[in-house]
Amino acid sequence: DVQTADWVGAAQKKPLSSGGVDIKSMTAKKLAVLIPVAEEVAMTNAAGLYAQLQRDLPTAFARAFDMAAIHGKTMRGATGPFTDYLAMTTNTVALGTASQGTGGIWKDFVDGMAEVVDDDWDYTGTVADHRLKPLLLQATDTTGRPILVDTTTPGTQMASAGTLIGEPLAYSRSVSGKQRRQSASSDTGLRAVGGDWSQAAYGVGMDITVRISKEATYIDEDGGVHSAFQENLVLLLAEAYYGFVLGDVEAFVKYLAAGGSS
After folding, report:
1. Which tens digit of pLDDT belongs to each residue from 45-72?
2. CB neighbour burial string for 193-211, b if at least 16 within 10 angstroms, e if fewer
3. Are 167 and 112 spatial neighbours (Cβ–Cβ below 8 Å)?
4. Residue 26 in contact with residue 247, Cβ under 8 Å?
5. Are 175 and 192 in contact (CB under 8 A)?
6. Is there a contact between 248 and 1 (Cβ–Cβ < 8 Å)?
7. What are the angstrom distances between the C-alpha of 94 and each of 18, 120, 151?
8. Are 192 and 126 in contact (CB under 8 A)?
9. What is the pTM of this model?
10. In whole angstroms, how far apart are CA 199 and each of 63, 66, 195?
């Protein structure tokens, strides 16, 4: 709680205030991936494959972190490593609730902002799935005119300018859970999360480290044991530590597509 200061007259007793601080611990969790690559591919970098694998590592780590921080899930759908995650909030708005005549999707987002603000939090921004962008750009009033047009930059639409209902807007494919170039992922129906981002904090325990071995063994997902030396493989092991914590999950609101379940 924030302490209370008040006005006091000359030589009068100063007002006394008590305040409390609740502590939430952020624990670092390890994120890792092991990639076996044929030695011939690593040596020749055929079609740039080996270089592409290395460039994809930060993307893989970012996706895993976002899935855990947003949905509380691992990339395989198990319970994630973090105690807090954004989809835990009970504040929910279904996109398409407001009629076109009352403001349509614009009103839906303002209603979500109201849920946050009425609970005494600030609404400081929105992170959205890319599937939301066409919905924003297609939104019109009852005369067919686009309603999401940035008046401060003539001709620039808000979805492209990076603001929505007057606050910053960013996009992440992890919001819906459906990732590009990852067949196992699925769409949860979550289209955006907005709220008071001062209530979200993350930590990086160490930068991504990559170790390479041509002699190590590894166990595949079926339990089979493989020797890199025997099978002419190069093993890439990437690791990093991340933490995430929320001050209060109710400082956020989630926006769902019709039929969404997040």
Report:
1. 877 777 787 788 888 899 999 999 999 9
2. bbbbbebbeeeeeeebeee
3. no
4. no
5. yes
6. no
7. 40, 22, 27
8. yes
9. 0.81
10. 21, 16, 9
